[in-house]
Amino acid sequence: MFFRNLTLFRFSPAVADDLSRLDYVLPEHQLRAVGPMEMSTRGFVSPFGRGGDRLTHMVGHDTMVMVGSESRMLPPSVVNDELASRVQKIAENEGRKVSGRERRKIKDDVLNELLPRAFVRQTLTAAYTNLTGGWVVVNTASRKTAEGLLSQLREALGSFPAVPLAPEESPRILMTHWVATGELPAGFALGDEIELRYPATAYGAVARCRRQDLDTDEVREHIRTGKQVFRIGLTFDDRISFVLGEDLVIRKVRFTDVVLDEKTEPESGEAERDATFALMALEHRRLLDRLAEIFKLPRPE
């Protein structure tokens, strides 16, 4: 499974030693089925699918984990409609108004009746840790989802002080410079997607381009009027394409045919999983190391 989006965190060499305990601590924090009176549960599941019995997938210095959640689908509108219906019946049948305290009790009754019958939705979020570089790579573009996965790791390990990226060079300024001058770091080329905004206000004009040549006067004119680059499509070494945000979240990750053609025919399903994971982690590591150089992303000590 290739990751589609990358939200990144870093951890220190000292923290890396603690990750060797994952195989021992994760079984105590597995996902369990949501109970009839619960809204949701969360825990670790096997990266190998429903039939998998291992909660980690390790290849070299990279270890993949997966967090699953089960949530009951009970929209507030459904609860409120049923509550309103019951309140109206009391008013019509008994000729009185329902007090606030009674409304709260009726709402609790509605929840107790509807919750066990609500559909259950399961969501999965994968991530892996790289010991040598001190990276946590989460397959999501949502900071909230990524932080939720880290919280599960912290709960399982007791402590896991991985931190968000702290660039010493402004991503927005550097990306704007690349487009304005056409001078990109070695190995990088412009893609066909960009988002430009005025940085001083959240309500200013926004320019978005997709499937368009970015090395044009039309695009640079937005920069001359004061806009800055908040997202930009890039290709690295003709091997991986992606959209980089000013928050350094990497979106829409795709490997080019150059990479995919290097995959060999595996002898078994397990060998294929190992090979796919190893290939993905290797290409990610090459990209992340270059981004760490460009934006000066320190690893915690």
Automatic annotation (TrEMBL):
It is found in: Cytoplasm, Nucleoid. Keywords: Cytoplasm, DNA recombination. Pfam families: RdgC. It comes from the Bacteria. Belongs to the RdgC family. PANTHER family: RECOMBINATION-ASSOCIATED PROTEIN RDGC. This is Recombination-associated protein RdgC. It comes from Luteibacter jiangsuensis.
